[in-house]
Amino acid sequence: MARNGRIDLAARPTRIYSGSSRRGFRFRMPRGKARRAARSEENLSYRSNEIPLALRMIAALCFVIAASLTVATGLMGTVTPAEAIETGQPLRAALTKPFKGDFDQMVERRRVRVLIPLGRAYFQIRGRQIDGVAARQLRVLERQINRDIHDRSKRIFVFAIPTPRDRLIPDLVAGRGDIALGNLTVTPERNALVDFSQPLLSDVKEIVVTSREVADLRDPSDLSGMTVTVRRSSSFHEHLVALNRELEAGGRSPIDVRAADERLETEDLVEMVHAGLIEATVTDDHVIDLWEKVFTGIKAHRAAPVHTGGQVALAFRKNSPKLAERVNTFVSTARRGTEHGNILLREFARNDRWLKNIPSNENRRLHPEYERFFATYGKRYNIDPHLIAAVAFQESNFNAKLVMRRSGATGLMQMMPATARLPIVGISNLLNPEDNVHAFTKYFRHLRDAYVDQPNMADVDRLMLTLASYNAGPTKIARLRRQSETPNVWFENVEWTVWRVVGAETVDYVRNVYRYYVWFKGMSEGPKRQTDTHPGEVRWTQK
């Protein structure tokens, strides 16, 4: 029932608000054995009063449903949480088991799986709130798919599966999703693997972004000798490599194309340009207006595009004519030039609320008086000083006097006094910055050795799991690791189990610290070296 713009979907709901609006919807995650009743892979049933527009957030690798987004579009009803938000093994297997059928078989299965990358403006999750341009596109897609289905018991659900960008195409080909939606540019290399819809955007230009101090680029050949950092899986990388062939054929020095961490989105790379960590990157022209509003230290070289005439489209498997027809019907209402498409683009260009927490260059600088502490205790406990700096920035924004009244978290690293008093730490004066850093590093090393470390564990996973343990508690993370299919891998594995059970706070915390770690490591290594090694390669001595 809808009351004052709110839809009651469960008896004891958790409210979800979209953006700053007070209008929202509610859902409740399942509880108890009754709500985990088994349901076979091919016989998933939904009651006739369920809402059709449900965007299910599903972990791409650990194969768990992270959350459920039910969209109010006039087809109101009451979701049965045990059925509509099932997190048991049968539904998990049903959604992630490779499937390569066409749309008619998806209708029988009553689900379409969309692979989608996370990004602060594109597709963002904060707690139980889901926002971004892609989230709005998925709502329209599900509405289009169900347009001619009047029997609610036969409605088709769209499931959004968070997927790293470098796996969008491979996972689509492998049948782990049915559609890939990720601002994908059509390229010959991608076209050899998958088919694309009619373009959502045409005549897309790929624009070089540098700091404001760089002289204006008048032609793509002016990039000769510069260092440009992009993800290897991106169309930007393909086009820079092609440009290098032209430069070398003309006797010019090639562009130094650096491969960025695939976990970083384009906005992260633009922000790194803004911070002076990398010399240049590339982004699409239809998003650069937003980034220029937020990152005032960048310059977009529109006169020297790396590539022009690009098309952005949805991808799906080859030999899927029925799905292609449905997707193209959606595109006809959502592409640039249509009313809905133009509204989305205007909202994306104008609305920077998704990026409001991005720190300024001044705030992000390493404070000299603290660098000594980071170095001293990082060396003593064999923890990268850049990681300690990243945690300090995330926790307190380098405010050594910060004390949280409700929780009692204190100082630079926001240590809890009770934790600092533990025999394994034994440090009391947390308002002293040096003691605060000492307490953190001593406790952090204990967490790693006592709760996280396993033989043959990758350094980056050891780091991420220790961060999660510091934020959410070591026993809780240890328990959630046992529930994960790959307990020694954080990204897209334990990460999603934590998100499903605990919520987004710890996941956001770890991702933010990881991002800041990349920044601070880049500050000390310089723009020429920043992407030479994986930022998660932290070397800790084994016990």
TrEMBL record:
Keywords: Cell outer membrane, Membrane
Classification via Gene3D superfamilies: 1.10.530.10, Periplasmic binding protein-like II
UniProt xrefs under Pfam families: SBP_bac_3, SLT
GO cellular component: cell outer membrane
Major place of residence: membrane
Subcellular location: Cell outer membrane
Topology within the bilayer: Peripheral membrane protein
Record SMART domains: PBPb
Boundaries of every Solute-binding protein family 3/N-terminal domain copy: 137-351
Family: Belongs to the transglycosylase Slt family.
Protein name as catalogued: Lytic transglycosylase F
Lineage of origin: Bacteria, Pseudomonadati, Pseudomonadota, Alphaproteobacteria, Hyphomicrobiales
